Amino acid sequence: MEKTEIKRIGDYIKDLEEGLYEWDYSGITTQGELTELYRIIKRLMDATFTTKDQNKKVLLASLEYKARKCKECIEQRLAIRN
């Protein structure tokens, strides 16, 4: 995984975390975000598995953890709203 893709994913997760923290649903379409998060988590898992760079593994794993936390938060909110 290239640095530009890692940065893009990191920025996306940061923005999503901020929106979820502020309960700002105006910029978050929950179903769309879940689909994107599933794709990102899969991509991060695959990249973490294939990379040999230990620092990069830590970075990718921490991004995956944050993405999973966002996914769980959205899933919980969807259950409350349904």
Chart the SSEs and their pairings.
Blueprint: H1 3-21, H2 30-50, H3 54-81
Distance between the termini: 37 Å
Number of strands: 0
What percent of residues adopt helix (DSSP H or I)? over 70%
Q: Count of helical segments?
A: 3
Task: Describe it.
The protein is mostly helical and 82 residues long. 83% of the residues lie in helices and 0% in strands. It is elongated, with a radius of gyration of 13 Å. The mean pLDDT is 88.
Please name the defining characteristics of this protein:
mainly alpha, 3 helices, 82 residues
Q: How would you summarize this macromolecular structure in one to three sentences?
A:
The chain has three helices and no strands.
